[in-house]
Amino acid sequence: MGWTGFATVFAAFFLTHSIPVRPAVKSRLVAVIGTRGFGLAYSLLSVAMLALLVRSAGQAPYVQLWPQMEWHRHAAHLGMLAVCLILALAVARPNPFSFGGARNDSFDPARPGIVRWTRHPILLALALWAGVHLLPNGDLAHVILFGVLGGFALAGRALIDRRKRHRLGTPRWEALETARKAAPLCHAPRSPIALLVRLLFGLAAFAALLLAHPHVIGVPAL
After folding, report:
1. 166 backbone dihedrals φ, ψ, rounded to 5°
2. CB atoms within 10 A of CB 191
3. Tens digit of pLDDT for each residue in 113-132?
4. What is the pTM of this model?
5. Is there a smaller number of Cβ atoms within 10 Å at the N or the C end of the chain?
6. pLDDT interval class at 22 (50, 70, 90)
7. Cα(132)–Cα(128) distance, rounded to whole angstroms?
8. CA distance 132 to 124
């Protein structure tokens, strides 16, 4: 695959990821397959497009910018472990500040969980994922790939803040933000068992990614 093919897959990736921000398209799809069906279908599509994009970067012309060192892989492994744990603590948890939340009306700003550390834990995980993959992939195509995706994850925080502030109303958003910041950085979980399950799920996801990496991406992670 040449640079043209890589650019085409990149464009298709961003085109499919524009669906959630196009209310007309999203509403038609939700009307056909339902909210839960849309969430599942879009998640599968996103994972498939990401795998295709990473594979296309590996097939683009190789232009080395820096060599890979052994510690790069170790750093990537530790970073991905952190990514999996962040996602395990963030996905399907109440979070009115960002996307990926569930039951946002039950959000308790006095016990915000990982939201106390960042309003956008999923975007943080995506940015960290991109950053740690830059280290062992010092060729031009991968630097473009992970640099762009990491940059969009970081820039997306301000965009989502504006949308959520508009949707909630500035007084409500600022009241939640003030209460969130006033909460302790670490607090007792509502359910220690649920917390343990989420952490175990994060560890299992990390192990699954290591095993699936050569089959999905085409390159072994170990």
Report:
1. -70, -40
2. 9
3. 899 999 999 999 999 999 99
4. 0.85
5. C
6. low
7. 6
8. 12
